[in-house]
Every structure is written in C-alpha cells, then in structure tokens.
Write a structure and sequence with these properties.
Blueprint (H helix, E strand, L loop, with lengths): L2 H13 L2 H8 L3 H15 L4 E3 L4 E3 L1 H24 L8 E7 L5 H14 L3 E7 L2 H9 L5 E5 L7 E17 L12 H4 L4 E4 L2 H11 L8 E5 L2 H9 L4 E5 L11 E5 L5 E9 L6 H13 L7
Parallel strand pairs: 3-4, 3-5, 7-8, 7-9
Antiparallel strand pairs: 1-2, 5-11, 6-9, 6-10, 6-11
Helix pairs in contact: 1-2, 1-4, 5-10
C-alpha cells in the first residue's frame, strides 16, 4: 500500500469529488480514478459510493480513512524525529492527558525544558484513559498522563507525587451545598452526570453501593467543562475530580468531596522499549529527575 495513494484517498474523502480532488492534487481525473480503483482492488473492498453529485465513503471507506490518517500522522512524526540536528536538540513531544490538576507538574517541566531548548515543541492531546492509551499503542503519542488507571502493567510508568480527589460538582444554591462532604445515600435519588469511562463507572458505582442501572444517570461526559455547563443549568449533579472547574468568586458552582474519600493515583506512562526522539528522551530524563524512578512493576 503506497503512502502516496493514501494521500490521494484522503483528498477524495475530503473533497467528495473526483474533479475537486484531482485539482487539489494537481492530477488528471483518469490518473486519480485509476489509482483509487487499484487501491480498492488491492484491499478487495469497495471504498466509495459514486453518486451523481458527490462521492461518499462506504463503511470500509470510513474505516480506511481513520487508519490512513493515523498512518500519515505516524509517517510525519517519524520524519520529524529524523530531521533533528545532531548538535541542536529540537523536535516534537506528543503527550496525551486526561483532565487533572497534575498537568501543572508536567507544565513546569515543559516550561523549564523549553526555556533551555526553544526548538522543542510540545503537542497536547486531551482524552480519557482509553483514548490516550490507544494513541500510545499506535505510536502517535510519546507519553500519557493517566488518572486512576487500573491496568498500566504493560507500560513503563512513573507515579507522580499527586492524587486526584473525586467529589460532586453542584450549584451553590443546591440543598447539598450546605454539606461539607457527600455520602453515597445523598446521591441515590438525584439526577447524576457521570464520566463515560467504564473504569470510572466501576469505581464510582462501587463507592455509591449501587449498580449503574439503579442510579438516575441522566447524562455522561468526557470533558468536565461541558458537564459543568449542564450543572449550571440545574440539569444534574456531576461526579468529577477536584480542581478542574473554577468554583470561586461569582461562579454558580461549588465542589464537595465524597465521604468516605475517593482518591486516585496519577501516572505518566509510555510504551515499554520505546525508541524516543532526542526531545522526548530529554523530557523523560527531566521528569525522572524532578519526580522519581520509573516503576516497571
């Protein structure tokens, strides 16, 4: 499978027209059509539905588009790693992060590193643990910052000197806002907004002492900021981590920790036996110096 043909395929998927894609690629229409037909023959799948006005992707075409985007991104990342000068430390570092206040710890290392090596660029990908580890496994991320992840044994991991605390994000005029902490019974009959992660669901339902089906979960989220807007509109109570939403001053919201407390560890992970770029290797060295040793257990 030719990388060039994958670029052709993505151009057609984007433009939805042989004519427009050929113009964008500076190819003749017959040449582009032939290349894409040969791609379909090679894969043994129909990738496009050729309509009278536009071309749309089949289910196989949609799957190939996702893979093609990942492949080309990995090719780009690999080229960048090999284009760095032997004398000058430069290049890109790709870090995936869940929502956690511990990003501040990483940010300080990044700031110090960039002040010494201004040609290093940092790229942050925000997502939950499943999304971040998927990108690490595919080689698209160098590192991942995971909150409360249970299964990290297949990665090299660094336990950060911080923990996240679970609690409830609610309006300040809520009846529960007068309490210092929130107990499981307080939430059994209330409209709840949950994180969509399965591991988080297990942890929270265990704390709540109720199966998910017996709770009034009216919405789920993967970014707490969006959930906080729903809380502001008095739609429900969001179970979330502390220090992610500003609840001071004129904010309509407040955060109440759970009782008994529910805290989670925060780990920086990377693939075992990963061959890093010089920039990523230097970042890892600085992280180790600032915090602690990599825990291979």
């Amino acid at each position: 499978m030719d990388i060039k043909v994958l670029r052709y395929f993505l151009a057609l998927a984007r433009e939805e027209s042989i004519t427009a894609a050929a113009q964008y690629l500076h190819l003749t229409q017959p040449t582009l059509s032939r290349q894409l037909s040969e791609l379909e023959q090679e894969l043994g799948k129909t990738l496009f539905i050729r309509g009278s006005r536009k071309i749309t992707l089949t289910e196989d075409g949609i799957r190939l588009r996702k893979r093609a985007e990942e492949i080309l991104e990995l090719v780009k990342k690999t080229k960048q790693e090999f284009q760095t000068s032997a004398e000058l430390i430069s290049g890109n570092i790709f870090i995936g992060c869940g929502e956690t206040h511990a990003v501040e710890l990483i940010a300080q290392v990044i700031k110090d590193l960039h002040s010494e090596h201004p040609n290093i660029n940092i790229h942050i990908y925000s997502g939950d643990a499943d999304e971040v580890t998927e990108q690490i496994d595919k080689g698209l991320l160098d590192f991942g910052l995971l909150i409360g992840a249970d299964n990290i044994s297949k990665y090299d991991s660094l336990l950060l000197p911080a923990k996240d605390t679970w609690g409830v994000l609610m309006r300040k005029d809520s009846p529960l806002a007068t309490k210092d902490t929130i107990s499981p019974q307080d939430l059994w009959d209330l409209p709840l907004i949950f994180s969509k992660q399965k591991e988080v669901d297990k942890r929270l339902t265990h704390w709540l002492k109720r199966d998910l089906e017996k709770l009034n979960v009216i919405a789920t989220y993967n970014l707490i900021y969006n959930a906080s807007l729903m809380v502001e509109k008095n739609i429900g109570y969001a179970l979330s981590l502390d220090k992610l939403i500003n609840t001071t001053g004129d904010s309509l919201l407040c955060f109440k920790p759970l009782s008994p407390p529910l805290t989670v560890d925060i780990n920086l992970v990377c693939k075992r036996y990963q061959v890093f770029s010089k920039a990523a290797e230097l970042f890892l060295q600085r992280i180790k110096q600032v915090f602690t040793h990599i825990d291979d257990a």
